[in-house]
Amino acid sequence: EDGQLLFLSNASMTEQAIGEASLKGKEALLMDLSTGKVLDYPAVANGETITLHYDIPPAGSMLFFVSDRSIHTGNLYKPMPAATPVNASATTMQRLQPNVLTIDFCDVQLGKDVYRDEHVYNAADKAFKYFGFTNGNPWNTSVQYKRNIIDRDTFNANSHITARYYFTVGAHVNPQQLQAVVERPNIWKVKLNGQSLTPKQGQWWLDKTFAVYDIAAAVKPGQNTIEITAAPMSIFAEIEPVYILGDFSLRSEAKGWSLQAPIPLHFGSWKEQGLPLYGHEVAYRKTFPLNNNKGYCVKLDSWKGTVAAVKVNGKNAGIIDIPPYTLDISNQLQPGNNTVEVVVT
């Protein structure tokens, strides 16, 4: 009732949208959809109309409130000035989580029969069919109504299934930090190279049903075998991938991957640096001296990821996730040297 809302969206992923709009009204406010701030926006009055100029980055947008009366917030919109790069230290890079090997093929033993090199989806299907589930794994082929699936948890006390997973460790891999992850430790008994493993108390990975096992004492150079057994069989004993975590790089082999000594990170694709299955964070850090009171921002040019979290001197400064991939960090800086960290997920 007191004005108009104008929403402008730039549909181009590569080019800026620059122009002007004239609307009936007295003043314009910019409503920043990423921060929630409302800012006085410069506009030229011409009788009963105002004209505002806009410059929208690729894939960007702007939301304006054009008021029928004079209105001010006291906070003036300031466009990002033309930027010049600062002199900073070389970038240091660090993987923030253990590297990951996903093992999703296995041998599955059902009675006297062994089905080799099966993807876990097919292995689970074969296992449930062996126990009379005509359609295979019920969790993939049907929808539970009330308790109609879990009420089929009536397996013989002597029933059991075993799945074996294989992975190769290079000669220069440090075994001390290697861990295995297996789902549902209350169902599966886990062995590595014939040695029984016990889940680490209070530890989990990705999900609270994903138990973590210390494998440093049982792992060996060359081929290793993880064996999981459910005895008796359970309606919840789905054969799923197991995971190896630790400080290593992965090398592509004729079949699967092998664990090798970690490779120092550099700019470029993580996939090409021994992290083809890594889905977590890498931190990029620079240090630079603050010599004046001008505004400063972090701008990412060519980068790939879901989101980039920015830290300044160890404190969260914000995130970068949409064009123009820029974050103002002026208020987080301090006199002297400052460390800026961009954590890409």
* Tally of helical runs: 2
Say how many strands there are.
Answer: 27
Termini gap: 44 Å
What structural category characterises the helix and strand content?
A: mainly beta
Please give the oligomerization state of what you see. single chain
> Which range does the strand content fall in?
over 45%
Q: What order do the helices and strands follow?
A: EEEEEEEEEEEHHEEEEEEEEEEEEEEEE
Describe the structure.
The chain starts with a strand and ends with a strand. The chain has helices at 120-130, 138-141; strands at residues 3-9, 17-24, 27-31, 38-41, 44-46, 49-56, 61-67, 92-95, 99-103, 105-110, 113-119, 161-169, 179-183, 188-192, 195-197, 199-205, 207-214, 222-230, 242-246, 249-252, 257-260, 282-290, 297-299, 308-312, 315-320, 326-328, 336-344. The strands form six sheets. Strands 10, 11, 12, 14, 15, 18, 20 and 21 form an eight-stranded mixed β-sheet that branches. A five-stranded antiparallel β-sheet has the order 8-22-27-24-25, with no helix packed on it. The chain has a five-stranded antiparallel β-sheet with strand order 9-19-13-17-16, with no helix packed on it. β3 (27-31) and β4 (38-41) form a beta hairpin. Helix content is 4%, strand content 46%. With 345 residues, it is mainly beta. It is built from two helices and 27 strands.
